[in-house]
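Give me the fold.
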Amino acid sequence: MLIGYARVSTEDQNLDGQLDALKAAGAERVFTDKLSGKNRQRPELAKMLDQLRADDAVVVTKYDRLARTLRDLMEIVEAIREKGGGIRSLGEVIDTTTPAGRLFFHVFGSIVEFERERTVERTKEGLAAARKRGRIGGRPSALSPEARGQVRKLRDDGAKTAEIARMFKVSRSTVLRV
């Protein structure tokens, strides 16, 4: 039996494209999660693994729908293999139900993890270079240094947080952070 698994990282994202591809591939049943891949507590993934039988194949649109790290992916693949099943990825055209597919899976998984680590490394290098040049990322402060001083003085004088927030047209959280 072909069992589909689809995942998106946030509630705002849409599963339709993955669901259409899984149905077209012949998935008889599809489990879906709307959670980040780094979250190992994915209820539908756990339910799918629990209900998996020997000779079932889990089909995904891409391997990154199952896990974000090679280690997690290998653990999930091993759990499926222990139950006598395999994995098919539509995007990478790899099928772990065959010996050659398992080999390609391991090689491909290593390359994917290497590329992810390189991306993280390049991002950190870029942020460090920007900081060195005096640029700090993130959203600009809602209050100037002078305004922050005025907020502190008003708080010290006993003004209520909500009043201060209205005066400076900022949220209460911003006033509390100051």
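The chain is about 50% helix and 15% strand.
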